[in-house]
Amino acid sequence: MTKLKELVGIMKDKASQGKAAILSKRAALSLLRATSHDSFTPSTSKHLSTLLSAGEGSRATASAAVELLMDRLQSTQSSAVALKCLIAVHHVIKRGSFIMRDQLPYSGGGRNNLNLSKFRDRSSPVCWELSSWVRWYAKHVEQLLWASRIVGFFLGVEAEADSAKG
């Protein structure tokens, strides 16, 4: 049964990647590859860089990339996909353009922005265990977003003017 679920996950990945390739959305294709169902393959820096490059264009492009990332995070039931999405969100916070970071969700109260406090992947004992990591990492990212909004800048990110110099 586990092998069947893995096969279905791989087929879903390939179908989504094929659709993105047909629609020629480079950032979407890289996001799907960076957040695949394969729990043994980490996201590549190439795919994450392509995702981040979407924030170097217009606000509309950055917004679409972040919306795609957040939709994937909210709709998945796979702990591997959720962790990879959270890693991508963390990359946006740390290395993304201001325009892209500005598109990340937050609420005034800063509580449960990513809405993963009840996330559970029941497909296997390992995935069940990974679910607790998903909830912990989501809370960490939520707190980082909340604190950054409170202080008025993103914590742990060099000022864009400073990074351009060095």
Automatic annotation (TrEMBL):
The keyword Membrane applies. GO terms for molecular function: 1-phosphatidylinositol binding; clathrin heavy chain binding; phosphatidylinositol-4,5-bisphosphate binding; SNARE binding. Residues 19-155 form the ENTH domain. CDD domains: ANTH_N_AP180_plant. It holds the Pfam family ANTH. It is found in: Cytoplasmic vesicle, Clathrin-coated vesicle; Golgi apparatus; Membrane, Clathrin-coated pit. PROSITE patterns: ENTH. Keywords: Coated pit, Cytoplasmic vesicle, Endocytosis, Golgi apparatus, Membrane. One of its GO terms (biological process) is clathrin-dependent endocytosis. SUPFAM superfamilies: ENTH/VHS domain. InterPro entries: ANTH_dom (IPR011417), ANTH_N_plant (IPR048050), AP180-like (IPR045192), ENTH (IPR013809), ENTH_VHS (IPR008942). One of its GO terms (cellular component) is clathrin-coated pit. This is ENTH domain-containing protein. It comes from Sphenostylis stenocarpa. The lineage of its organism: Eukaryota, Viridiplantae, Streptophyta, Embryophyta, Tracheophyta.
